[in-house]
């Protein structure tokens, strides 16, 4: 594991690199709004990816690196993420397909930046379709805007809602709530199986 600091327009971000033996793609994973990169589902996805031949970068947003708990505005999150993706794509993962991903807020960032960042695929862990109890405040448009293959791993009892499968979008329901802590093995299996198919698709 290697930790690198990366300058962004909103302060330094940090990336924790977990390299596969023979990496054929790279997966960038962002954390949730109030949590860090040690979340159980992010750890499970990292293990699944490196075991499948995919490098992983666990990306810590500048507000977390600076010690702040409150998340930055969406535009700042997206700009910082894009700066990290550009840097890692040039310095560490040159000529490899980049998969954007993350949990909760990090999944939203991955969706919003997928097109501009030329992501080859998107992995969403616990995508927050709407705030709890407020289905009228849907964020489904962010997910629907993704035009590359996407996987959403969602807890069956997630108070943030359930997205529907769509063209190029798979949804896997696992036991538990928004934390995805109840069955991390299921998160691992879903990620591993999907990544295997993505690697075949990438050639």
TrEMBL record:
InterPro entries: AB_hydrolase_fold, KANL3/Tex30_Abhydrolase, NSL3/Tex30. GO terms for molecular function: hydrolase activity. It comes from the Bacteria. Residues 24-184 form the KANL3/Tex30 alpha/beta hydrolase-like domain. The keyword Protease does not apply. Keywords: Hydrolase. The keyword Transferase does not apply. This is Alpha/beta hydrolase. It comes from Saccharopolyspora halophila.
